[in-house]
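Please check the following.

. . .
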Amino acid sequence: MTTEQIREILQSPAYEFLRSNEHLKGKIIFLTLGGSYSYGTNVETSDVDIRGCALNSRSDLLGLSNFEQVVHTETDTTVYSFNKLVSLLLNCNPNTIEMLGCRPEQYMVCTDIGREMIENRKLFLSKRAVNSFGGYANQQLRRLENALARDKLPQARKEEHILNSMKSAVKAFESRYRVFENGGITLYTAESSRKDLDREIFADIHLTKYPVREFNSILNDLTNVVGTYEKLNHRNHKKDDNHLNKHAMHLIRLYLMCLDILEKGDIITYRGADLPLLMSIRRGEYQLEDGTYRPEFFEMVSDFEKRLDYAKRNTNLPEHPDMKRVEEFVVSVNRRSLDV
């Protein structure tokens, strides 16, 4: 589907909410493509995702309203309020920062304020991109590893793989749960008495006067890791392989986009010269007949990890965005939005 065809679709009744919703009517400053169409990695079956930004209203800025975003699931459309989008951009959130790096023709709507925001996109760039993009990349890599471990490894090895995922979750507890004490939970595998398992994950828990609500959240986090494997026991291999290849492609794309930010100081959403590599991954050219991946793919991932580490240490980007300049820009836009 061409951008012109997408422009025509946006005028259809399915997208009437863009013109009638109280938060969007007359307030949209830009609309652009999201997902595969924005990267150039779309295929015939790809959905059209629309992403955008709308000015906050007078009641948002001076009253009690609190508009953050409009999500229209039927058309895969998300439009953020200006203030909400800025808060996400400041953390280099991959799903939103990419909205400012699309090709000019991919902006279906773009007002003067919208162009100003896109032209000032570098205001939001900092070393925070390493953690935000790296976190998303790790999620994609884990999905690949989880699926491969689920299908190809002996049960005892699968259990070890789940254990490693659970240990990664435990490492995050200190930042997520205020009173979690390191060492309070020890996870390990041992011989199982269950008939369906050779080995099983066990936990030694040593906690005193621990809030029950937080403890319940911790258990949910850990059981969700196991649940991810359990849900995928019965799968459509052909359909799942397509998904896995798509995850593999996006893993590499995330590295490429993050490197652009750190090395070039810019957001480049449409991947252009990278498309032959990305589409070869999506087509499954790095996947073997048994569903596993060629060593070259994981060598590529390792090379990107090393390059990302080097770029992090040598980038000219600041640790954090210049909040004074960002605030000046936000105040300028919000003053003008009061008149809209």
Remarks:
- The first helix runs from residue 3 to 10.
